[in-house]
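Its record is retained below.
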Amino acid sequence: MSDLQILFPKPVVIDVRGRAIEVRPVQLRHFEAFSQAASGLFMLLANSSIDEVYAYGRDTGALKAIVGHCTNLSAWRIRRLPAAVAVQLMVVVAQVNASFFDQALQAMASTLAGLTQPSN
């Protein structure tokens, strides 16, 4: 059991208008708000305009829940992003966090597979 480890994903750095932005994994205390905001975002992306998606992010707090809690951007900078950039950033942050969860599930599956293999 001493070889068990917990995955701590490293932030992903993206470029937004010439500025390096860290996309971090969602913290447990923000998980519920993040998951509600991201699911609403993905439902809207299927058949809404950028303005409608941005309004959703701004009016429901999804922009703060997704971008505010998972990047190193201040609230002041987030409010000043162009709508199209804010929408793209929300999508990228949600996608990066989905990949963090995929990595964690893969690590868990390989750990469980190692635990269930019979020892010789």
Notes: The mean pLDDT is 85. The longest strand covers residues 12-16. The longest helix spans residues 83-116. The two ends are 16 Å apart (CA to CA).
